[in-house]
Every structure is written in C-alpha cells, then in structure tokens.
Structure prediction request, 493 residues.
Amino acid sequence: MAILRDEWLDLARKVDWEFRYVDDRDVFPEELSGSPWLPRSAWKDWNESYRTSYREYVANQRAKDESVRSVRDALDKVRLVEGLDRGWLQLVKFHNGAFVLAEYAAVPSELRMARFGRDAAWRTMATLGALDEIRHTQVQLLVGHDLLRLDENFDWTHRAYHTNEWVMIAARHLFDDMFVAASAIDTAIQLNFVFETGFTNLQFMALAAMADKADHHAFEKALASIQTDESRHAQIGHPVLRTLIENGGKDRAQFLVDKMWWRCWRAFLATTGTAMEYLTPLRARDRSFKEFMQEWVVDQFVKNLEEFELDRPWFWDLFLEEIEFAHHSLQLGMYLYRTTLWFDEPVPDAAERQWLQSNYPHWEEVYGPMWDRFDRAWEAEGEAGTIAYALPALCNLCQLPTVFLRPGRNTACTLERDGRKYLFCSEPCRWIFEREPERFADHRSVVDRIVAGQAPGKLIDLHEWMGLGASDHKGKDLRRGLEPWRFVPVPKG
Ligand code: MN
Ligand code: MN
Prediction:
C-alpha cells in the first residue's frame, strides 16, 4: 500500500533523535552550530513554510534545467550573441566574475548547516540548498563558457575568485564573513535572511528583467531559474531568526542583521548599482537602481524587521542619503581605475546623462563636471590623461575606495588599534570592524599590501599581480581606445 506524501513528509523531515552516549554540545559544538547555544527544546518548533520532498525536488530541478537548456539551444546562434549590446556584455562579464564562484562557495556553507543546524527540517532544507548552489554554479559557468568565443575575457567567470583583483578581494572579504567562515546560525541570518531574502531579488530578478529587454535570453532564463531556488532555501533564515529572538538572542540577531545589511548594501551598490546605470543599454532600463532598491529591498526589509520586532539599523538615515549618490561616486572611481577591472567601462553619453539626471535630480550638478573633465582629457591627452596613477585609499572593512558618499561629503573615518592605523569609508564599516576586531584586524587591503611590500607598487606589475597581465584582460574605455570598433564617436548632446 502506498503512503501518501502528506502522510509521511511532515514526520520524515522532522526525524531527530536523542543521543545516549554523547552530549548535544559535543555533537553540535557552539563554534560550528552558532551562538547563542540553545537547548534542543528551543528548536523543536523550527518549521519552513514550503515543504519539499527529495522526490519532488529532483523532478522540479530536472524540469528547470531542461528549460534553461532549451532556451540556450534555441538561441545559441553566433548572429544573436554578436548582436548583443557591448555595454551589456560588460555587465554580464562583471556579474559572472563577481557572483558565479560565490555560488560554489555557498555549497559548503549550506552543507555546514546540513550537519550543524540544530533541527532536522533545517538540515534537510540546507541539504537541498547545497544541491541548489551546485546547480547555480554550473548553469552560469555554462552561459559564461558560451560567451568565450566572443570575448576571451569571459574566462573571468571562472578565474575571478582565484585572483587578487581588488573588486574580487572585496567580494571574498564579504562572502568569507557572510558564510564561508560563519557558524550555522550566522549563515542562516546573514546569507539566507539578509542576503537572499533581502538583496538577491535585485541581482537576479531585476537583472533578468533587463536581460529580457537587452535580448540576452539565455542569461535572463538562467538568472530567473536560479532565483526560484533561492526563494526556497532562503526560507531557512526566518525560523532561525524567530528561534533566536524568542530565546534571548535578540541582540545577536539585531547585530547580524544590521551588519550584513550594511555589507550587502556596499556590495550591491558596487555591482548592481554601477552596472545597471552605466553598462545597461537605455532601452533596457525601466526603473532606476534607486527605485529597485526602494521597492524590492527597502520596503520588503522594513516589513521583515517589523515582523520580528527588530529595530531599523542605526545607520538608516545615512543609508537613505547614500541611495541617491553612492554608486555614482563609485562609478567615477571604477572608470578612473578601469585598467584594474576585467571588463570595460564607458563615459556616459548625452542620452545616458539625460536619463541619469531625470532619475537622480542632483546628478548633473554633482557628477556632470567630473565626466566633462574626462571628456576634455581624452581630447587633450588621449587615454593616458584619463587613468588614475595614484593609489586610492581603501576601506579596511568593505575594501572599496573611500569615495562615499559623494564629492563634497566624505564620510571616511579612522581608527588606531595595537599600533596600526585603519581607514574606513564610513561609520558603519568602522562599527562592524570594532564589534569583531579579531575577525578583521589582520587583513590587509591591496594598498596596505603595496605599502608593506607584499604587492608591487608599479601599475604594470600590479596588473600582473591582480591577474590582469595580458593587455586584452584589462578594462578599457568601452567606446574609445585601440580596437577599430571603439572609434565609434561618442554621441554628444
Ligand atoms: Mn545561489
Ligand atoms: Mn542561495
């Protein structure tokens, strides 16, 4: 006699047993399971809202993979790929380098929860989460690989995390903190709750919508397919947060949420924010990064905080002020230091500037003169006059240049600890550092390494050190430079 799914699933996912010969504290040590360490009884009500059996999981995932593959097969024509917008291709290259192998790094993190999570249903969900992240890595490596014949720099899809390129050091610093070097509890709150429920919609759904309008359907399909998995395993975060809050762990929960919110904001303004508004063709832009942030991230996050009776992070006003400026400020730095990136960066043309101004009322006034200066330097001195040669000041927490939040309002600050001076881009970055100095104090930024003689000071050697040795690898001006197609004149207003 067959037993119906609903008769066994609820029970099977909660199979847990008492250990007779060992203590729970030895099976689930605090270092790996997380703090606060709560008794087993505190976790017994851990429940996920959407339940999945392994059989359903396999059937669903197989169908998703088939549908990604069929779109890829149908659209895998040289003509279609070659017709993609040049800026858009740089966005895909940026996304692939910054995110694809981070998916792979998330596999052992899900597996850590699958072993050290304190409830059987949590461990089951995390096991499926690990399988999800393997799929995300593979699907995106495949899409990246298809683009290699167009541009060999798409090998950064796989290479980026193995280099010392500065954006990638910033990405590793963040993901190590968020989930690679984090306990099961910290991972559930930082990765599942803040990053996945809070922010990945932006990277995966907003970019998928833009990919559709930019006619890059293989990329669109891959991102949308990935996000359906994220929303399933991201639900691990809620019941972990709930259990912490109900058992005296509210302060810890609030700290993890605040810290990771700020760190994710820095990461997404640097990647999604700049890419969405400087690399995406105008026809693909429905809404601004600011609007996506407000609708998809801020509103949802505030609702989540209220549901858990958590406070808004103490830096909320600064964050709201930054939404208007921060990614535009960073974009100037990325353009100036473009030879240290693995993708190209444009000077916005007249139509793009108009779009920026209509979405950000201060854009022309604050940023217009700076971009004008680059234009004049191109004319007077050529490429050499438009590249920065001096070392930037980098934040010792987020590892980004201290360009925030805008020209005329710099939020950089310092700290001295055990005879070493640290620099931060903002108070929240310093606050995160000060809460757990033992976690961050020994790390050296790229500039610290240059000063200490651990990395070369000459730009050309530094490129080599960052993995950008071959001249084809280095970022260039998207529309000007050496290759003939780049001589297309930049449209002027
Ligand atoms: Mn993923
Ligand atoms: Mn995930």
In short: The radius of gyration is 23 Å. Residues 106, 133, 196, 230, 233 surround manganese (II) ion (ligand 2) (CB under 6 Å). Residues 92 and 197 are 22 Å apart (CA to CA). Confidence is low (pLDDT under 50) at residues 484-489.
